[in-house]
Amino acid sequence: DGAYLGLRLDRGMFPFLTGNRRPLVNRIQLLFEAPGADPSRHHDVLFFAGEAVETIKPDTCREGVFTIDCVADAAWPGFFHGVLDIDPVKIEGHAGTSLGVMSFHPEIEKLCNVWLLFSYSATDPMDACRVTEAVALPC
Predict the structure, then answer these.
(1) Verdict on whether the full-model pTM lies above 0.85
(2) Which of 79, 70, 50, 77 has its CA nearest to residue 62?
(3) pLDDT tens, 62-91?
């Protein structure tokens, strides 16, 4: 078997979102360092949406399985890069939300480093956090 990487994000990873807004992750970019990253060479990485490393059963998953085509490029020597657009996933609470699991093929002999970049939008502020117009009180 190859290596697995579970993606679990929590609200604390987005401290700059004010108004109690929730991040909605909609894209994952994967950049990993591995031997043989010659330009135009590629590896397919499987993504099992909504799964967790502890409970994943890759042989029986039929839905929510996506392939990320990761390609080596002269612009990023020694690295493979891939992008996956996903249905928006709302990240809530400190317990975290499992986005899914990435499965790296066993033909990747040595997985040196992995970087993930997440694109997201944010929900509207919660009602309690909205600024309302000041009510003019009579003198």
Answers:
(1) no
(2) 50
(3) 788 999 999 999 888 899 999 999 999 999
